[in-house]
Design goal:
Layout lengths: L19 H10 L4 H12 L14 H10 L6 E7 L5 E7 L5 E8 L10 E4 L3 E3 L14 E4 L2 H24 L13 E4 L9 H12 L11 E5 L3 H7 L7 E5 L5 H7 L8 H15 L3 E7 L7 H11 L4 E7 L13 H13 L4 E3 L13 H9 L1
Parallel strand pairs: 4-7, 7-8, 8-9, 9-10, 10-11, 11-12
Antiparallel strand pairs: 1-2, 2-3, 3-4, 5-6
Length: about 375
């Protein structure tokens, strides 16, 4: 089980912090039949029950015992916002010790008759220690790592919303009962650096992909990192068919170090070397996130440097117009300049996408809602 915080509020741990094998052992030690563990697992991870009293398939005395030893849900929903176009929902949660984190549900319309995607963007830390100058979370500093249970519960909270929408559409005749899908994708791109909280990130991921629970396929999960070289190398040996996204944001050390202090620890040469290693070991394409900052990294010469840097690497570049923050100094690159930048990458044979923006009207950028709440207090 994950380590618990020392404060009084963490005396009763979350059962979400248990791996499946640990849960099976606890149920067996209580003298319950093995199928009770499977019932409990499915009730939590498949049906999204976050309180033992809601799991009516279990005997009451068993539920009472569990409720004395564990909790399921520990996150307190403080703010729930929906964008004007209904494509994005953002939640602000308070953790048991009062720290604040954000989670986002993004809805994408269907293409060519296929069911639309619903992507959960989740946090792995309260705050962040890496200090990227264009990021609202990075400007707030680091508070603590999230437990694996706190990471998983964000997905369950968003899954409840997604499933309720699906069931409503069935009642309205918009979708068939067999088309209920809930969340289709998970991205570890919220607050914090996932690979700096490596153990809890990987543990949460394994629970999320379990096919008797939430059951989101590995290839529909993305872990984003600023480029922690040792952890990327470690991840390449996990035998997980997930997507890896690298926050690059510049094509050379000078430019990257101006906005991303981590580049002084792991310069671009080391980062690109480990990316080649990762592709060789996993046979998986790498996604590079490139936030376009007007006058900082969005020139055509920057695009040419980026094309040369990534030439020969199995990758895809996501070009992202920056979400301006209250304390930020960077403006958005306009649409024409973004397309010109993309055109240069195309000449070098580097596939890229200009990221579809969602939830700007509800501060959907990482850390922006927390920043707004704290500044108003």
């Amino acid at each position: 089980m994950e380590n618990l915080h020392s404060t009084e509020k963490f005396i009763i741990p979350s059962i979400l912090g248990l791996e499946k094998e640990e849960l099976n052992k606890i149920v067996a030690q209580l003298g319950e039949k093995p199928y009770r563990a499977e019932q409990l697992w499915r009730s939590i991870y498949k049906e999204c029950n976050l309180d033992f009293s809601d799991i009516t398939t279990l005997p009451k005395n068993f539920r009472d015992f569990l409720s004395k030893k564990f909790r399921i849900g520990t996150l307190e929903k403080k703010i729930h916002l929906n964008s004007a176009d209904s494509s994005t929902t953002k939640l602000l949660f308070a953790l048991s010790d009062g720290e604040l984190i954000e989670s986002v549900l993004m809805r994408y319309t269907s293409d060519y008759g296929k069911k639309g995607r619903k992507t959960a963007c989740i946090s792995t830390q309260a705050g962040c220690a890496l200090g990227c100058t264009f990021c609202a979370t990075g400007q707030q500093g680091f508070r603590r790592n999230l437990t694996s249970g706190e990471i998983i519960e964000q997905v369950l909270q968003l899954q409840k919303i997604a499933l309720e929408e699906d069931f409503m559409e069935v009642q309205q005749g918009i979708r068939k009962k067999g088309e209920i899908q809930g969340i289709t994708n998970v991205v570890y791109m919220g607050m914090g650096e996932p690979l700096a909280n490596y153990k809890n990130t990987i543990m949460s991921l394994r629970n999320i992909i379990d096919n008797t629970g939430i059951n989101i396929g590995s290839r529909h999960i993305t872990i984003s990192t600023v480029g922690l070289v040792p952890q990327i190398k470690k991840l390449s040996h996990e035998k997980l068919q997930i997507n890896l996204a690298i926050s690059l944001h510049a094509p050379d050390n000078k430019t990257r170090s101006e906005t991303m202090p981590v580049n002084k620890r792991f310069p671009i040469e080391e980062l690109i070397d480990v990316c080649h290693y990762y592709v060789q070991k996993t046979n998986r394409r790498i996604f590079f996130e490139y936030v376009l900052l007007q006058g900082q990294n969005d020139s055509l010469s920057n695009a040419e440097k980026l094309g040369k840097l990534l030439n020969g690497l199995h990758c895809h570049v996501n070009l992202i117009p920056v979400n301006p923050t209250n304390n930020g100094v960077y403006s958005r690159t306009d649409d024409n300049a973004s397309r010109s930048f993309q055109g240069v990458l195309k000449r070098f044979g580097i596939p890229s996408t200009i990221r579809l923006e969602k939830g700007i009207d509800i501060n959907a950028g990482c850390g922006q809602l927390r920043e707004r709440v704290l500044s108003s207090n």
